[in-house]
Fold each of these.
Amino acid sequence: MRVVVTGATGNAGTSVVRALAADPAVTDVLGIARRVPRHEVPGVRWAAADVEPGRADLDEVFAGADAVVHLAWKFQPTHDPVETWATNVLGSIRVFEACARTGVRALVHASSVGAYSPGPEDGRPVDESWPTHGWPGAAYTREKAYLERYLDGYQLGHPDLRVVRIRPAFLFKRASASEQRRIFAGPLLPWKLVRPGFIPALPAVTGLRFQALHTDDAAEAYRAAVLRPVHGAFNLVADPVMDTAAVARLLHARTVPMPAGAARAALAAAWRMHLAPAAPGLLDAVLRLPLLDAGRARAELGWEPARTATEAVGEFLEGLREGAGLDTPPLAAEHRRGERRRRDAGLGRRRAPDGDRQRDPGLRA
């Protein structure tokens, strides 16, 4: 089986290509990204291609593929939602339509918990039948929800193409730490200080809770979705449900209550000053996310996470204080970024004052 993976150099992508390449049923894995990485994975070939309209000929890239795993995604610039829409929505549609034209038999699309509408008031976990209208105030959730609607019609028009939608909770691993810090926290988070005992207290935002999953465990679900004759959506989560208190315990810190409105106001001010790359609408969305039930993935994919959510977050925090990463443009470690900044400064290149306008993060998942 020949599998093409878009966004193959990001957090999810680097784990998915490794999981696919390790399976004897997969004979060829082609990882696609805007820039070919130096990171080597046995059994994986790399190719440079951009999913944005007017860029690569995706028909040529997908020719002869049995399955396409679509992970490519751009989180920044959050101050320019038109640019992220061009990559995330229009680029994804290009991927979907190229799959249909080239005879790809299976399309596995990276959706997200963010595609779901706000959760029920009683807080019960929801299955894949919960509405996927997202939260209108955040670009990320709008884009994920729009693609859910597009795929609804796409499946009707292409009944012979097997379409799977993977809806994971937040994905963490050690090697994603540097990238996720740049995407969501920016310079406000001193990564070298993220260690037990160094941070005395964490703000416990009212109503904030989340589900997490190790990226390698999610990759196993993607692998199963490629190989098994399944259709439709699958939630992916690991226990337990996390909150600020759970993270504080990992850091040996205490918590300080903070109203959600105060947290949003602080984030909005930092975002307007380009100090924080995450937009305040994203916090609004996270506060409304439903809890997910992953029973269908366990039953039909034969999937079970090997790590708890606590272990996944703990490994991520270790990666933060180490400045961990991989040798791909999106996942480059903090010390490698510093080397590049110094090299660019020596060449007189102009760089953005924060991560919001940098193109380095590229296409990722």
Amino acid sequence: MGSDHYFSASPASPENLRVVRVRLAGRDIDVTTAGGVFSPDRVDAGTEVLLANTPPPPPGGHLLDLGSGWGPIALTVAMQSPHATVWAVDVNERALDLVRRNAQSLGLDNVNAVTPDDVPDDVMFRGIRSNPPIRVGKNELHGLLERWIPRLDERSDGWFVVQRNLGSDSLQRWLAATFAHGYSVHRTATGRGYRVLKVRRHGSVPTGAIPLP
């Protein structure tokens, strides 16, 4: 793909739409994927590890899939929690179009596939599930997490899957240091070379505590 990455806003590579059979939320379904998005031929291993090692999402409220790609996490959560509003957030417009197409084909009217700036500022999330784009680089990844983790509701959890050899342990240490007040960070599962990290927001940041930038 040359300089065309799955985290490009407008991929220049050919779309090459394809239909792929996958299993999500206990159902065998057909989804549409395309070139220029992450893992177009299957549910990638990291996402499978995340989905297999997280509890059912909250039944209502706002839920976030950060870095949605063509939508395996968002579609799963939307099927599991039909009364919740699921935000599939990605910078890749082609990926967002695929999420919308797949949600419509599955009859899921509770999915909003949008760019980060299109999420209203007052929306807080009862849960986050993410296979974050590690390859964007450490600074951009940290900025992404610093933007969205504080939007967890009190007593709500964010779940993140990271490949061990791409820095999951150092990311866990960074999360624990950055979200040291009002949060806890734990590794909850390991599988197929991936770690699942859980960030829980316990409550408001204590008075006088200054979160690290």
Amino acid sequence: MLPFVGWRLPAWCRGWHRPQELRIDVGPAPDDSLDQELDTLHRRLHRPGDRLFGLPTHPLRDPQFVMHCREADGEWYVYVEDLAARRLAGYTVFNRLVEVDRHADAHVRAPHSKYAATYQRRGLATAVYGWALEAGLCLVSGARQSPGAHALWCALARRHAWGHVELRGKRLAYLGRELPAHQREALNVRMFLLGKGWTLASFAAAVRMRDGRGDGA
């Protein structure tokens, strides 16, 4: 499955430190439109004949919740249902990145989540991201993060290999873990998390990631 696992880790891949803060946006205020969207999606999940009806499901560690999973055009949609309350808690979309070439596109996705206010800070998005990482998917952060999203990524970085990359010319350029503030503020600088089974070396080979350190990035 991973043909580059045996490749020796290059020197520029070594060394791990605590994640630094990327661009943080103020979290949006609760919006009634999200509750309406979630209500509509929940009805569709249980409406025979709808394309969301009968999706494959996966349980979360908390048996109160279940994930309904759909793939479309290479992107994954994960709808988290509260079985006890019979409502949708929220959803996560694992988006393709238009900024990368086909080599990286085969392995990385950028997750974006929307969860109702009453279900935030309950670890649901963390559980969904963790499920994707355990399945071997590698994640790249978006251009901006809410405070909650940044905290989620930092939590996952304690359990998964991670680092910073620059999206440059449709390729990933590895920047390491410790970055100066001005570099972290660049919109094309992102954080990545490696899924289960990947090493930094095998990931670098598969996506043709180059060493972007020391070249004035």
